[in-house]
Amino acid sequence: MNKALNISEIKLKYKSEWILVENPQTNEFQEVQSGEVKYHSKDRDEVYRKTVELRPKRFAMLFTGTIPKDTAIVL
Asked: Is residue 68 in some structural domain?
């Protein structure tokens, strides 16, 4: 899983999963455009635990599914 993938490839390969992306490349709006997928799972907490274990210097967390309408997002 060390090859850099673009965001379209990530979304296609890992549908409705949480993704740990190392060394993300972003656009001017800080949206992830590509990076190395280090871990993925349907379980968000599992990806969080793996992130703590791996301790990447630069990373992003992505969700490739759709968020339900009644979900609140806190930034």
From this structure: no
Q: Which two tokens stand for residue 62?
A: 């992505």
pTM of the model: 0.86
Using only the alpha carbons of the chain, give its radius of gyration: 12
Is 71 a domain residue? no
Residue 52: which domain range? Answer: 4-63
Closest CA to 4 of 32, 41, 44: 32
Single-letter amino acid, residue 49: R
pLDDT digits (tens, 9 = 90+) for 21-43: 999 999 999 999 999 999 999 99
| Length in residues, the chain | 75
In a domain, 41, yes or no: yes
